[in-house]
């Protein structure tokens, strides 16, 4: 049971890191899109 919880925590940590990476990349993407639209409008 303890081993299972350790495994679960490991998976949770990996999932959290993946989510953070996804959030960062999507934030960068949104910034670039906004920048692109600003350049386009001028």
Q: What would the average pLDDT be, to the nearest integer? A: 87
**Count of beta strands:** 0
Gross morphology is rod-shaped
Oligomer: single chain
Instruction: Sketch the topology as an H/E string, one letter per element.
Output: H
Give an overview of the whole structure.
With 42 residues, the protein is mostly helical. It contains 1 helix and no strands. It is rod-shaped, with a radius of gyration of 18 Å.
List keywords for this structure.
single chain; 42 residues; mainly alpha; 95% helix; rod-shaped
How do the strands and helices of this protein lay out in sequence?
Layout: H1 2-41
Compose a concise summary of this entry.
By secondary structure, the protein is mostly helical.
């Amino acid at each position: 049971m303890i081993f299972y919880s350790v495994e679960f925590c490991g998976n949770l940590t990996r999932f959290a890191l993946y989510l953070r990476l996804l959030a960062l990349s999507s934030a960068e993407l949104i910034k670039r899109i906004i920048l692109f639209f600003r350049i386009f409008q001028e």
